Structure formats: structure tokens, C-alpha cells
Amino acid sequence: MSTARISTLASLRGSIERLEAHGDAHDLTRIALGHKAADTMLQGGLALSAVHEVFAEGHQSAVATGFIAGLAGRVSPRRPLVWVRQDFSEIESGALSMSGLCELGLDPRLLVTVRAPDTDAALRTAADALACDALGAVVLEVWGQARQLDLVASRKLTLAAQASGVTALLLRMAAEPRPSTAETRWIVRAAHSPPGSPWSAWGAPVFDAHLVRNRHGPVGRWIMEWNCDECLFSEPSAYPQSLAATPAHRPHPAAAQGAFRRSA
Q1: For residue range 92-109, what is the model confidence (pLDDT) as tens digits?
Q2: What sign has the CA pseudo-torsion 172, 176, 180, 183?
Q3: What angle do CA 85, 62, 223 make, to 5 degrees?
């Protein structure tokens, strides 16, 4: 092994050791998600300048996309967002809908999408984007169990995020979690969303969000509703429709039953 390579490896190990030693939760800047229980568990909210992972089964890809879009909206409400997608993700789950992201509260004018031919290219692109401190967040979307996304790659992304102050959000579809330096790891599924009003068939996006990794605290699981107007997560609202009133021209069921017994 050459002297230059030994020096580079030593420098990288030193950076990793400093990163892992610098693990005090109070030193991290956080942004509240809006969901009180989740924010309490996260000691104030989602940590910025860090890596966060969101996992979902393949058939839950739309749900995971909506959830990570919500995280990006909280992390980077008024700064540019770069979304790096592996080509295979678009084949499996379809293209990103700008109108859909707009309905979630994101500004499509601040979104830059990049299509990468494979995982290696997606990783390089995400790392380059994380080096740009003008961004608010970078989303890296990769489909399947990509061997390139190992512990070493995770550490490099974490170092890049910490150096630039840009938050990295990894969206993993149809993949099993592996060791990483991610600040948090979520497994997301769809939850029941009742109609928002009597004249609307669609309710607010609701997620079954399971926090399975939290570097600075315990984990938990919550039903989280995304408020598209205020761009934050919250406790699910109660079913908004009232129960149907008993028609005035019909007797109360108890009275009707009593009258039937007397006649019998």
C-alpha cells in the first residue's frame, strides 16, 4: 500500500472518529416535525446536517415518497432541494408528480430532479450535491438491496452533510436496513385516511411511521397526518363528519320497540 493511500485512510479514520465522538444530541440543530410525540422522542425534532433513512416495501412506494417529501418540506421549506433517483425507481414506481408535490406543500420551482443510470452514479451525484451549501436538503432514492450503500458510503454521506450543513434523506424501496451512520431510520406504511369533508373523497395523507433507529434516544411508532396547508405533521384529526340524526318523522327505536311489545 502506498504512503499516500495510507495517509488518506488515516485521515478518513480520524474524520470518522471525530464525527462519532461528536455525538452530543444537544449540539445538533433540529427542526420540529409538528407531531408532539415524535418530536419529544427526537428531543426537539429532526436533526439537520445529518443523514436520515426511510424504508418501505415496494408496494408502499407512493406512501414513502409522500413521507420523505414531508420531511424535505420541513427541513428545506424555502431552499432548493435536489432529488436524485435511480432509473429503476422510476420504472418501478413512476415519475415524480410536480402537481402532487405541490399539493403536499412543496414548491416545485425549488426542486431539481436528477436521474442516475445506476446506484454508483446516484451515490456520486448525491455526494456532489451535498457539498453545495446553497441547498436545503438532498434526497437519494435507490430501489432494492444495493450493496454500494454500505457503512462506508453512509459515513461519507454523513461527513458531507455535516461539512456543508445540508440534510441528506435516503429513500429506500424494497430494501432491508443495514448498518449505517444515519441519525434516524424510519419504516413507513400507509394508514387509514378518512374523507376530509362530506363533499371530498380524499382525506389528508396519513402515515404509519415506525422510528426503528434513533441515535440519541428511544424509538417509537405513531400515526402521523400531514397537514398540506401548514406543511407539518400532526396527530390524526378526528373523523370530521357527524353522525346522521334520527329522522323527525320516525319514533325513537326504544319507543318503537315498546309500542310493538304492547300491541303484541
Answers
A1: 888 899 998 998 888 999
A2: positive
A3: 125
CA separation for the pair 92, 73 (Å, rounded): 24
In one-letter notation, the amino acid at residue 39 is D
Residues β-bridged to residue 109? none
Distance of CA 253 to the CA centre of its chain: 49
Report pLDDT digits (tens) over 200-240: 556 789 999 999 999 989 999 999 999 988 999 999 876 44
* Integer angstrom CA distances of residue 139 from 72, 90, 157: 8, 14, 12
Contacts of 115 (CB under 8 A, 6+ apart): 85, 86, 87, 90
Share of the chain above pLDDT 90, in %: 64
The reported pLDDT for the residue numbered 18 is 52
CA 211/CA 186 separation, integer angstroms: 5
* Long-range contacts of 19-22, Cβ-Cβ distance < 8 Å, separation of 24 or more: 19/155, 19/158, 19/159, 19/162, 19/181, 20/181
